[in-house]
Model the fold of this input.
Amino acid sequence: MSVSEFRAPGYPRGVDLTRFEHHLESPQGRRHLPANPFTGAAGGGGCCDRLQISLAVERDRVTDAGFDGEGCGAALAAGSATVALVRGRPILEVARLGAREIAAELGGLSPGKLHAAELASDALHRALGAAVRAGAAIDPPVSGASRTLVAMSGGVDSAVAALLCARAGETLAVTLELWADPENDGERSCCSASAVRGARALAHRMGLAHLTLDLRDEFRAGVVEPFISGHAAGETPNPCVRCNGHVRLDAMLALADALGCARLATGHYARLADRENASGPLLRAAADPVKDQTYMLAALAPRSLARLSFPLGELTKPEVRTIAAEAGLPVAGKPDSQDLCFLAGTDRERFLARHGGLSERPGEVVDREGARLGGHRGHHRFTVGQRRGLHLGGGEPLYVLETDAERNRVVVGSRADLLTDRVAVRGARLHRPGARVDRIKLRYRAQPLPARLAGAPPAGRHAALTVHLDAAADAAAPGQLACLMDGDLVVGWGTITRTPAWAT
Done:
């Protein structure tokens, strides 16, 4: 393939096509597989180009690299340029390389060819993340200094958290790739390959080394599969709580250790309290009650909280956007994500059918006494408290009281039937004595309700607990998290279990 083929009209002047020609005709490291390699791949699927970058790492340095791939000449040249850039360089220097540097190594690329540099950057950073996660040894910061790892999603909150950390000291960034599905809208998801690419570009713009962790397998096993099985069992799982408590933050804390980082910072709106307690710190509600995210973090163990930092805990959302705008960050006005990351661009019904085989399954809608009122297309399409979608005609408004998976039926009743003054939880964790619990939060956006635990249980693990509400409230769906609080402190949590108020 001749380099002249790339001299199309509109190709930017000043681009050094001889450098492109060098990598195209004498590719560096093509089909070379280093010893004990860490490999990352990108492309394929709907893209005709595919690249695979392999790295050999010793302690804190990339000692060798190779690539292979197929597709257009620009993609293959980008693979060669990547190999030339990374060989012999420290890991944290490689973590500052992205599509812009790869394109520069090629002498510049036309807008139509920039995808090749992005593809090579994606493959490189997947390989680099695997290497660091597997145990590459990064030298600790100099004596007396500290290093922070900050989680970046590509949104304004994590960007400002990174900015504030960088102003305070050495900061590295990480983004997690959690899900890939052609039905998803990658631009709206915070964990897709597209989101990772945007977060990486933003981190590099801020002068930060950036690493990518590919946790797609762990996310599928630890979050998506329980989400599917929970719906199949007639519950309404909370995947964000499970992801924070069992997948994302554990992996990032392990990465922080590998990178010599004393703490992990995130863009969550939350605070910490009681740091000096021998049992570990507690979560405290954020200063901005509208944005408070402690409910989603409630399943974190105190030993994890001790390593965490929440730079936005004392700020409001408008203040965060102002800081971003004043710093010239391009995400200052970016809208907040509204969907579950793996549902962006699709919906729950389509997702459960596609990934869990929970397709249409006709069943009965019945009242409390079991009398048939109508039909439905699958119990997994409903959740306790739901009113819309029942299609039962006029009359008194009816609400879902229970989803019976075994008999594939949906039980409905009046709003009064939905009320309960008792909440049963399973798999509970108390970080402080149960006598301290004076309220409970049953939903992410709900206000905490005055409550107390039955029996004043001690701190520790409990197979089951009962919470008594001071006043009756709408029952929450089984599978959701119950956040146990002492004022604005989170002192424990559990999973709401099936105890229909109308059946007691």
About this structure: The radius of gyration is 26 Å. Confidence is low (pLDDT under 50) at residues 1-11.
